[in-house]
Amino acid sequence: PNGRTYESFCVFCPSGELDNLRQLEQEDVLVDWSSPIFLNFTHCAIMDRLEEFYQPIGTLEKVCGDVLPTEEAEMKQLKTEHAKTIHDLYPANTMECVEVFEKLISALPAYGVFSDGELAAWMVQSYYGAMFSMQTRPEFRRKGYGIHLAKFLTELVISRGYIPFVMIRPENDASQSLYTKLGFEKHYQTVRAILRPHGQEDDTPGGGARGGTVRAETSDG
């Protein structure tokens, strides 16, 4: 921590037997309480007891983390009936129709994490190794489902003989961080666009004057 080297120690104690932590107060052989020491993530109940007797000795600088198990979740292949749910949360659903998702799910690997039978998160392969539409429903976020899906589908795409890749919008910090952890690196920037003649509305099927506008969005690949 903070670029310094510390002696470190761990504490293991059943949560129902925390009174045994009193042994640490007399510990002077294995733990040197007179020097700065580092304790990695430890159950908060144990830390509370340590803090009680450590107060006369010094101060604690703490960082807390939530433990979010995923044992109740199940990874399963998606079905076309899930396409609408996926499309509704897809950020670019104005540029892709729900039928595209139905075709991808029926033809290529597409998996979801189900919690108590409910679709919580999903990811789809698209074309030559591309992986996209990784989404987690808001009520299921911060449970680690995204990284489990990304790891699973990455390995599956590789097993099918493709090089897995993703396209991420520059402002999507969460996805940038996730795929960096998995070893992905930026290769180039890609753009997709709608080219529309002047005078054409979004849903106008044809015709129009010469000259036009381009609406584009970029992704880091």
Automatic annotation (TrEMBL):
SUPFAM superfamilies recorded: Acyl-CoA N-acyltransferases (Nat)
Pfam families per the UniProt record, alphabetical: FR47
N-acetyltransferase domain segment(s): 73-201
InterPro entries: Acyl-CoA_N-acyltransferase, Acyl_CoA_acyltransferase, GCN5-like_dom, GNAT_dom
Chain positions covered by the region annotation Disordered: 197-221
Stated name of the protein: N-acetyltransferase domain-containing protein
CDD domains from the UniProt entry: NAT_SF
Organism per entry: Timema podura (Walking stick)
